[in-house]
Prior knowledge:
Layout: H1 9-18, E1 26-31, H2 35-50, E2 54-59, E3 63-65, H3 66-75, E4 80-84, E5 87-89, E6 102-104, H4 111-114, E7 117-118, H5 124-135, H6 140-152, H7 162-173, E8 177-183, H8 193-198, H9 212-221, H10 238-251, H11 257-260, E9 261-267, H12 279-292, H13 295-302, H14 308-333, E10 337-339, E11 344-347, H15 356-365, E12 375-378, E13 383-386, H16 394-401, E14 408-412, E15 415-418, H17 422-441
Parallel strand pairs: 1-2, 1-4, 3-5, 4-6, 6-7, 11-12
Antiparallel strand pairs: 8-9, 10-11, 12-13, 13-15, 14-15
Amino acid sequence: xxxxxxxxxxxxxxxxxxxxxxxxxxxxxxxxxxxxxxxxxxxxxxxxxxxxxxxxxxxxxxxxxxxxxxxxxxxxxxxxxxxxxxxxxxxxxxxxxxxxxxxxxxxxxxxxxxxxxxxxxxxxxxxxxxxxxxxxxxxxxxxxxxxxxxxxxxxxxxxxxxxxxxxxxxxxxxxxxxxxxxxxxxxxxxxxxxxxxxxxxxxxxxxxxxxxxxxxxxxxxxxxxxxxxxxxxxxxxxxxxxxxxxxxxxxxxxxxxxxxxxxxxxxxxxxxxxxxxxxxxxxxxxxxxxxxxxxxxxxxxxxxxxxxxxxxxxxxxxxxxxxxxxxxxxxxxxxxxxxxxxxxxxxxxxxxxxxxxxxxxxxxxxxxxxxxxxxxxxxxxxxxxxxxxxxxxxxxxxxxxxxxxxxxxxxxxxxxxxxxxxxxxxxxxxxxxxxxxxxxxx
Length: 442
């Protein structure tokens, strides 16, 4: 996990020419759930499809051992294997079979693995684009996706370097993405004004999300014309948007404002009403798809399905955030939890497993529970542990548990879910507490 200078786009292209990897009639892409990895897999899959070959996408944890990789080689012995955005642990030899796998991004402990790895864990989308381009000329859609993936790594507000910066600049030059400032709420181009505020969980708007009366009062105070109340935020003119901004700023915690307002990017070739017209929209949908284990539906949309798959994904997304907000309101009014000096355990008997990562994230961000200690949400079936330190990478967490018998599932960049017995859950919680403390000291 040591930091290295990210390679440039030209460097990736040069390395790509030295890697002896051939696609097959059947190709297996094994991808981590990070949005940039999902985007890279989409770009590669589209290209393989254009070559008239078959592909299958499988989702795995962001870290795997060489033993696991060798098992995949045996299981798919007649297929070419491409690993996307996953760290490979161990120094054993990888079995060749009909050919070695290709590793897009990620890190490894093996010099052998490094010899057929393209890119780093910070340039996954760019590396995916470069590899796909080596197979067949890229179209504008692939380039704008690669730019979106590059923007999402580390967050849009972080400065970009190396291949990420090169890809973004190339997309800008070709008019495929444009920088803009404004609201970064999900549904800014498609949901009615009040619903964009009412169902927001990225970010969660304390006292506003889930409160129809307050949403109506805000729009009234901002003097939004009646005819625009059921239209998207993007339909507001500059003076209307400024008035709404002024009202919201007085009602929100200062820490929430940068998440709500700021720099975003438009994907210019995407339809005006599309939820993925803005990179922030892809970010939110990607995060929700990861948490709900609906990455296959996200891949379908990114591959080009703007009909049924997109509709189903939006419906699932809205249901999810309504459930999350309802549970947060229940916590605010009747929190049932046990706090210690190191952690908080909250009982949410019967709550859906898939909402727990977002509920934990919001509980930490909004101060419902102690914001500096990990929180464990217990629904009677699983523990979902969410930690506050963004410095604690999910890959580090998974590495720490690989040698144990505890089975965990990464459900977001800052949460894991465990279905084991009570002893395993408590052991995992203690380990997360230690890791969270250690991350904050770095």
